[in-house]
Amino acid sequence: MAERPVRRPWPVRRLFPLLGALGLALIGIVGTVWGPRYYGKTAWALPDDLWGTMVAAQRLLHLDLAGLYTPPTALVSLPGTAVIMAPLVAVADLAGLPLTVPHGPYPALWLLAGPYQVGISAVALFGADALAERMGASPARRFVLAAAGATALWSVTVRWGHPEDAVAVGLLLYAADSMYAADSMYAADSMYAARANRAAWLAGAAVAVQPLVLLALPVLAVAFLAGGGPLRRLPGLALRAAALPAAALGVAVTANPSAALHAVTSQPNSPRIDHPTPWIYLAPHQAGDLVAAGPARILAVVAACGCAVLAHRGLAHRRLAYRGIAGRGVRSLPELLWWIAVALAVRSVFEPVMVAYYLWPPLAVALIAAVAAWPRLLWTGAVVVALTFFSQIWWRNPWAWWTPMVAGLALALYLARPGRRRNASAVAPQMLPEAGQEFVPDGAP
Predict the structure, then answer these.
(1) Residue 443 domain-assigned?
(2) Cα–Cα distance between 409 and 198 in angstroms, integer?
(3) 1 inside domain
(4) Comparing C-alpha atoms, which of 56, 53, 54 is closest to residue 252?
(5) Domain for residue 247, yes or no?
(6) Whole-angstrom distance, CA of residue 364 vs CA of residue 344
(7) pTM over 0.85
(8) Is position 178 within any domain?
């Protein structure tokens, strides 16, 4: 048996996303602190939403669980959103940096909070690079992926202050990577079970941080089946995926049932502050000019299940079966990622009130699906970057902003869709691994 290649140190293997995260953190601080001076403003340009999340994290550290969903936190996701910010708040408390809402024009805490939120959000960049490496993307393509990914991540972190979206998507990417490895036709049974279980735990952790990734879980489930996974294992995987979100929500509901259930189920948003869409006319209205976004997201879940049905057919047709080799099929990883992007995109289609960073999750995953070929990567990257900045424009009409955003999202998905795979017989014999090893060059040029 040939010797396994020496594994390079992690900072070397993940150099491109690491540089992207460092560049984004630096640009974020410079742009928010010194950038406003060019516009004649004196206060720093800070993401206000981040401060409410930090208040929730502070209450979590002080074991004030009843206050997780009470003002001024404005928390509408699961408690994992506060958990990922708890280390920052703990350090800020030790350093004596005050956390107040409103935060004032020059909060010193931002100089710590800005780089921290970019740092934890970089899990999405690292997950994207790991998947690109698994697909056999060249260093040049991985560099472009990291550059475009970090640029798009600006909207989620520096502009709006919602690192929970990036952390959840990053965990979802690692779950997809584990699920793909588990379904490899060459994975031994013990390795297969361990990787499938790891994928379920990662998916559950992602949901506990931000429930939007629920839309992608039906696609992961059917991908597991399309890759040869037995149906009898799905209930166990589902229980593992549900354990962390259920425990987190259960603790919050026990501490303050009315506030927690109202925030998580209705998920109120303000059409006066954010972008109303045509669905605003059908959404339930609440006191204080708020709109309940939760009911409309049920439609998104139904649509995501429909995507999973279509994904199962496509993934099953793209399995590679080698003559004389027993085992599971090898799925197309770009195809899996593309369907995950489509499932995440349906949220923007049915959302009654939107914010620009809502577009980021499907755009980020579509960018990874496009990395297998230069034309798809360059065109998709151009649309992703353009849509990231174009979405920051403020239009109040429900049709004027939502229509071009959904059209741009559809264009990015169209450009990122993987082409036809080669037949199994066209794969060179030297690409076949020995028994017990992974099949990794899926999507390689």
Answers:
(1) no
(2) 31
(3) no
(4) 56
(5) yes
(6) 10
(7) yes
(8) yes
